[in-house]
Amino acid sequence: MRWVHDVFSNSVLVTSFADEANELVFTSTVLAEHYPSEPDVDLIEDYARTLPFSYDAIEMPDLARSAERHYRDPENRVDAWVRKVRRELATDDTLKVLVGITGAIKSEFAYAARDEEGTQTPIETLDLGSGSCRDFALFMMEAVRSLGLAARFVSGYLYDESLIGAGGGVIGGGATHAWVQVYLPGAGWVPFDPTNAIIGGRNLLRVAVARDPAQAAPLSGSYIGPAGAYLGMSVQVDVTVEAGGGEVAEPLQKD
């Protein structure tokens, strides 16, 4: 086993096996000490407070791929959806538009947990009117990219305060979760969770960031064996709160 950092500086464990086995089980136990803070939206540069704006020439080479559209939209349907939301908001304020897009996804699309591999394209999410957290995250990424903004995919966990009796009602609490970060000059990468219309990182425990969801797969690899050897995969996530509160232990088992 060896640890490496990928192109996004995420920690990746690379494992190889020399012997044959009938079963492969990965067990990961994480103790997270979370110190949430509100995003510094007051520090957004003046030139970036209203749309449209252009990123600084020094930053743009590093942001370019995150600002590009990644999925085909020949009829510009995602653009049309964004224009509709902006008309309803009646503002060019950058932060208000992003908050509005986050809320619109939450209100207009139905949440549906999916076990299928991969992520729906933005057009599929529009056609179905539903999706999982990763589908909503991808849809929002393409929506804000249509405005010229840089966005990236975030994979992690959603902390549900109902675990300590402080309310709740969040979708996806106690499980793997996905959301979006949008780069706002002066404030940096600001998190937006369209599944729950959450702005900021209080309930969001980031594990990995990537330009595209496919780059943030929690487990990937290959095996050698008979064609019928693969019998499926099951995943179990258990979340508990450590005594004293504030720390969340999240064992993740894949087999």
Please describe what this structure looks like.
By secondary structure, this protein is α+β, with helices and mostly antiparallel strands. It is built from 5 helices and 15 strands. The strands form 5 sheets. It has a 5-stranded antiparallel β-sheet. The chain is globular. Residues 246-255 have low confidence and may be disordered.
Total number of helical segments?
5
- Globular, elongated, flat, extended or rod-shaped: what is the shape? globular
Helix content: 10-25%
Q: Report the sheet with the most strands, covering strand number, pairing sense and barrel closure.
A: 5 strands, antiparallel
| Overall number of structural domains | 1
Q: Look at the helices and sheets and give the structural class.
A: alpha+beta
Identify the CATH class: Alpha Beta
Strand order of the largest sheet: 10-9-8-7-11
Percent strand equals 15-25%
Under CATH, the topology is which? C8orf32 fold
Uncertain spans? 246-255
Number of β-strand runs: 15
Question: At CATH's second level, what is the architecture?
Answer: Roll
List the keywords.
5 helices, 15 strands, 5-stranded antiparallel beta sheet, C8orf32 fold, alpha+beta, 255 residues
Topology:
Elements: E1 2-5, E2 11-14, E3 26-28, E4 31-33, H1 60-67, H2 77-89, H3 94-108, E5 110-111, H4 122-128, E6 130-131, H5 133-145, E7 151-158, E8 176-184, E9 188-193, E10 198-199, E11 204-210, E12 235-237, E13 240-241, E14 247-249, E15 252-254
Parallel strand pairs: 5-6
Antiparallel strand pairs: 1-2, 3-15, 4-14, 7-8, 7-11, 8-9, 9-10, 12-15, 13-14
